[in-house]
Amino acid sequence: MLLIAVTLAVLPFALAQVGTAWVRITNYAVLYILLALGLNIVVGFAGLLDLGYIAFYAVGAYTYALLASPQFGLHLPFWIILPIGALVAAFFGVILGAPTLKLRGDYLAIVTLGFGEIIRVFLNNLSRPVNITNGPQGIGGIDPFRVGEFSFAAPQSVLGLELSGPIKYYYLLLAMLLVIIVVNLRLQNSRIGRAWEAIREDEIAARASGIDTTRIKLLAFAMGATFGGVAGGMFSAIQSFISPESFVLVESVMVLSMVVLGGMGNIWGVILGALLLSFVPEILRWTVEPAQMALFGRMLIEPEVIRMLLFGLALVLVMLFRPAGLLPSAVRQRELTERHG
Amino acid sequence: MSLLECRGIGKRFGGVQALSGVSFSIEGGEIFGLIGPNGAGKTTLFNVLTGIYVPDDGGFAFDGRPLEGMKAHQVAAAGIARTFQNIRLFANLSSLENVMIGRHAKTRAGVWGAILRNRRTLAEEEGIVRRSLQLLDFVGIRARANDAAGSLPYGDQRRLEIARALATEPKLLALDEPAAGMNATERIALGKLIQAIRASGVTVLLIEHDVRLVMNICDRVLVLDYGEKIAEGRPAEVQSDARVIEAYLGRPRAA
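Structure tokens for the assembled complex are given below, as produced in the milestone run.
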């Protein structure tokens, strides 16, 4: 435990030795973990397949961007905007949840997929007649997190330690991640978490056991969306520029893959999945090119192609050999391996 | 006042009249049997009473409150708990978790309680576990508390479903063919369990094909045939009723 804590604490400095880019990559990985944990509530806990999850990330990101950028000349502090973004995202979660209450499985997946696209298309086109989102050009100059004079973006020296912007964000993200892990663990092991499990297992039996499935499902959508919204706000601040391009379908699929690959329903599995799918492609990007140069003297295959190939291969292998994920939850394990009755 | 009072309940599925004009009442503290040949409308009536179907005609009052048109979870919260003919457990969850889920309507902790884990939530959780273990003990499967529900032997799954239903603290427990698939020994034990449930103050509505079980433990019996009530009364009376015999065995050939 202590070992992990120390490792996490010194990690950014070690990474900064390799290159600041790696600290940034780590930060994005943590953002993906936040997203994957949020989606895990909807997909893993409540069993509602959501293919448009990135929409909530987008809602959170745009809420932050609109309230803290030159776009409207608003510069609210982040500790006001993040909760607003979370609320707005939760509201959109309920908007998505309400009409889809009766849908399950594939049908729900299609509707959520459509929802994700609708949000993106809206962001793309809300530049006319009134310019709200600035359309495909995106919004730039977004404020970083700032508390008084202390800005998370500017480098700073504390007690002789050089803290770059990404390093500061790293600690902020890490703190956020810890909070969200605790929240997830507690939710899972609670009256609400059990109700989600009940719905996933058998909705009719859940109702007969006194569970208001409508409310509990909406709650799952809202909670999942809340986490997405918070992650989106942080993304906005860290990037300082966002455009609809960041919120395409592939991103939803990516987050879902993290959840499935790691182990739906198991928080540690989901974290592992998010880490793998964020880091492995980056490592490949940095190794494939030099490796090919060394072997063949020239680039034969683009790193991007190899990345997608390996990604596909990894998913196929996991589904074949560990269908419940790399670190499956005990319940999912039973679901996929045993036959009942 | 009766615990459950049904007035002229009717239910159609397309052209099929599954129930028509069924009226009866269940008194608090009795074991009430509902029998009839296959397709007589027993399960349909059950599903109307537990909020899965909305009746087309008539209505029913439970504990003095009209309940028709309520949703299943509201019916459960109002005090009617049920089991299913084809067992519907949360098969991948442990037996204990199954019963704990039954406590949902009687407990309150929400998202904030879960996240903050304040004293009230912790006390509530402790109460849920304690009560659930008691119920597992009551139905006789305490030793299997941590096993996956789907891995239990058939008879124990039935018992677990009853424990989950009892966890909602019902006034009326509705059992849909609880003895189906049980052997003779298990049936006798089930009869004892149902009597123990009644002794604990819960009224029981029992759909059952096993005539011996019904005759042995029910105080009164309602017989359905083609969606209509054909007899109601004490088991011995019903057993000798000409229409009941006809429904089960056919009309005696005119000699």
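The longest strand of chain A covers residues 156-158. Chain A has a mean pLDDT of 88. Further analysis is deferred to the final report.
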